[in-house]
Design a protein that fits this description.
Layout (H helix, E strand, L loop, with lengths): L1 E4 L2 E6 L4 H7 L10 H9 L3 H11 L2 H5 L4 H29 L6 H16 L7 E3 L1 H14 L17 H25 L11 H23 L12 H11 L6 H23 L10 H9 L6 H13 L7 H32 L6 H17 L5 E3 L1 H9 L6 H16 L9 H10 L2 H4 L4 H8 L1 H17 L1 H21 L4 E6 L5 E3 L6 E2 L4 E5 L9 H12 L3 H20 L57 E5 L8 H15 L4 E5 L3 H9 L12 E2 L2 H11 L5 H9 L3 E3 L1
Parallel strand pairs: 2-12, 8-9, 9-10, 10-11
Antiparallel strand pairs: 1-2, 3-4, 5-6, 5-7, 5-8
Helix pairs in contact: 5-6, 5-7, 5-16, 5-17, 5-18, 6-15, 6-17, 7-8, 7-14, 8-14, 8-15, 9-10, 9-18, 9-21, 9-22, 11-18, 20-21, 21-22
Length: about 725
């Protein structure tokens, strides 16, 4: 039993091995479901399951019936208006990144948000244009419909203007991106985002921010040269900028600098006084309203409005889909990863759950639906979502109201659709990069605390910067997985020792007050053991004990062959002992059988391997009698590791070193039984539930000449064994 005693604990129990523990404590025999049972449960349908499926596919059913009108509606209205104003300006600005006319960004701020209102599980996410996705779409657009030169040879481009061709490309790649997200959602692979660590996403988004910054230089400087995409695009763009910099439009440059300075100052005011301001100052809207020249061409405005509302949907172009599918897949991953990461932050803050698979479905359908109405790839933007949450948004009603704001702005303030100076939009894009560019500040922290994550960040950043965002993401993911493999393949193994006066064991190098019984080594590997690291495990174990058990075993068997030969030849005399038979079938120089258990047959004496042996016989000394393997951090063993472990244990046992395995997971034990791990040499009795149980057993078997009583009497204040 366990009795509390101040800040001490006293446990009185028998010393257990796994065998004795199993005898005294019967384990519940649980039946596990097979794949057939899981499939049967998955496809079985009843009334409750149908209701749950409907709530899962349409999350709005779950929260709309609990909507608190008195407490939430006003906040959602204020949030929707504030977020909508920002969404309009960001939609216009981010269209430049997609190499599309500004008005098409408004489609992205409207159509996907409407669908997400019904299908999304996040209550605070603001759906719409995201600069990195816009840039990735722009790369495909400029590749298939370049600024200078003929477009790609694609059926369906005939009779279309350059603008129409680009819109068709953008909507098609968005459609296939949404299709990828929808398929992943149906396949329930929302967990895939877990492979994109915060470090990788940070390096990737920072590189994307630099790409965006460089791409906007031509608009800020008023230069006229075609866009560049593909590997080293950033280098070629900078080359074009500097070669053409003498043609800078000073008016555009000055306007951009003034706008950026003004917007940054007001955004800083919004951040510092957000607790006192009812809503953030919509500085982007104010700037655009001041700069835009109102043109009262009502007729043109009505025509554009008519097109916006009544323009018929378009079908994606199959040839464009074939040309862009490779780029669309990383876009689907990036769009979902960013949105899910942001949604998770606010779900934790406001104590509700989000479903990754349902989010994939929501964004997949949103993007496919939006693409049919000429919008481009949609996700979220952290700044826009932060505004939606900080201004009082409680549910996606704020999101749908922001989408309505987009429609209202188009109807009531149609002049925004007139061509705006690109330098203004470029300046607004650059200002919105502040948060992503400030991620450079993470590097000193990563360098100081985790060099592996630092390498992942730098590799992802450099690859994304010079190879392009799609290839850069693949390289970054490969680098990240490589670091994971390295950490599991080359873990930090250690020798443990007892902390004096306790039942606690720690790395012997980290403490001074330790106790190490003579002849005992405690080895810990803090990772799974599998095919890739079993050899590393064996090498580290050999280093830890100071000898190779296989070499010792072979040396001993070879020594026995020599002793037998010397006895047969009369070179070694033992009084009162019959000389062994003159069987010469055993070849002393043969290497066969040297790794088998030691056979003392034919030798009339017991060989003590730690004493001086006859002349010309040398065997490496073995200075331990017990080896303890701490498996507390071993989560799984594969077949290759199981075979390697079995061979290693036998090598130690055959040279008279007792091996004990402690804290082994019960499911690993089951696997060992299933795979016939145990035999005449390796028995279940070598397994112990705790390290301290094994150590007490060893010290009972090999008394430590007084140290046992001196040290473990103190331990008994905390642990008494009867």
């Amino acid at each position: 039993k366990m009795q509390p005693s101040g800040r001490h604990y006293v446990v009185v129990r028998p010393l257990f091995s796994e065998d004795s523990f199993a005898e005294q404590h019967e384990r519940i025999n649980r039946t596990r479901k097979t794949l057939r049972h899981h499939l049967k449960d998955y496809f079985t349908c009843d009334t409750n399951r149908a209701k749950n499926a409907a709530r899962s596919l349409l999350p709005i059913i779950g929260w709309i019936k609990n909507y608190n009108i008195k407490e939430w509606l006003l906040g959602d209205i204020v949030s929707g208006i504030s977020t909508g104003l920002v969404a309009v300006l960001q939609g216009l600005a981010f269209s430049l990144l997609a190499s599309l006319p500004p008005g098409y960004g408004l489609y992205t701020a409207f159509f996907p948000a409407i669908i997400y209102f019904f299908l999304g599980t996040s209550r605070h996410l603001s759906v719409g244009a995201f600069p990195i996705l816009s840039l990735m779409v722009g790369a495909v657009v400029t590749r298939l419909v370049p600024d200078g030169g003929p477009p790609a040879n694609i059926t369906g481009f005939e009779g279309l203007s350059m603008e129409q061709q680009r819109v068709l490309v953008a909507s098609s790649v968005t459609f296939v991106m949404g299709a990828f997200q929808l398929i992943m959602g149906l396949l329930q692979v929302g967990f895939i985002v877990m492979y994109l660590s915060e470090t990788l996403v940070s390096g990737f988004t920072t590189a994307a921010a630099v790409h965006i910054l460089v791409s906007q230089l031509r608009f800020v400087l008023g230069l006229d040269f075609p866009g560049v995409n593909g590997p080293l695009a950033i280098v070629y763009t900078l080359e074009n900028v500097f070669s053409d910099i003498t043609n800078t439009n000073v008016a555009d440059l000055v306007t951009s600098i003034v706008i950026m300075a003004l917007v940054l100052i007001v955004k800083e005011i919004n951040d510092r006084f957000k607790s006192k301001l009812p809503v953030p100052i919509p500085i982007e809207v104010i700037v655009v309203g001041i700069i835009t020249e109102y043109d009262s061409k009502i007729y043109n405005f009505l025509i554009k409005l008519h097109h916006f509302i009544y323009e018929s949907p378009i079908a994606p172009n199959l040839e464009v889909i074939k040309e862009s599918a490779v780029e669309a897949f990383p876009m689907a991953i990036v769009g979902f990863a960013v949105a899910f990461s942001v949604a998770k932050v606010y779900s934790v803050k406001h104590d509700y759950t989000i479903d990754g698979n349902q989010e994939l479905l929501a964004f997949g359908v949103s993007n496919m639906f939006g693409a049919s109405f000429r919008s481009f790839a949609a996700s979220t933007a952290l700044s826009r979502t932060a505004i939606q949450e900080s201004t009082g948004g409680k549910t996606q009603i704020a999101g749908v109201l922001s989408a309505m704001m987009v429609l209202i702005v188009i109807v009531a303030v149609g002049f925004l659709l007139e061509p705006l100076p690109r330098s203004v939009l470029g300046a607004l894009v650059i200002v919105n990069l502040k948060g992503m560019l400030m991620q450079f500040r993470e590097l000193p922290f990563l360098w100081k605390n985790d060099r592996t994550d630092f390498v992942t960040w730098v590799v992802t950043f450099v690859a994304s910067l010079f190879l392009g965002l799609d290839l850069g993401l693949a390289v970054g993911l490969g680098a990240e997985l490589f670091t994971v493999v390295c950490r599991t393949q080359f873990p930090r193994c250690s020798l443990l020792a007892n902390i004096t006066g306790t039942d606690i064991y720690r790395d012997r190098k980290d403490y001074n007050s330790i106790y190490e019984p003579e002849g005992v080594k405690i080895f810990k590997i803090p990772s799974p053991i599998f095919f890739a690291n079993i050899d590393f495990f064996r090498d580290k174990l050999v280093q830890a004990v100071g000898f190779s058990p296989l070499k010792v075993l072979k040396k001993r068997n070879k020594a026995l062959r020599k002793i037998r030969k010397m006895l047969r030849n009369g070179e070694l005399e033992i009084s009162d002992v019959r000389r062994p038979s003159t069987d010469t079938s055993e070849d002393n120089n043969s290497m066969e059988g040297l790794d088998q258990p030691i056979d003392f047959s034919g030798i009339p004496i017991q060989v003590n391997w730690n004493t001086e042996l006859p002349a010309n016989i040398s065997v490496p000394p073995v200075n331990i009698h017990s080896l303890v393997l701490d498996f507390s951090a071993v989560s799984f063993l594969d077949i290759s590791a199981l075979k390697g472990l079995k061979a290693t244990l036998k090598e130690f046992l055959r040279i008279e070193v007792d091996v004990y395995i402690v804290s082994c997971d019960v499911y690993i034990m089951e696997k060992l039984h299933q795979c016939s791990f145990f035999d005449d040499e390796i028995k279940t009795s070598i397994f112990y539930p705790t390290l301290h149980d094994a150590m007490l057993h060893i010290l009972e078997k090999h008394p430590d000449h007084g140290e046992l009583e001196k040290v473990f009497t103190v331990i008994c204040n905390g642990l008494t064994v009867n």
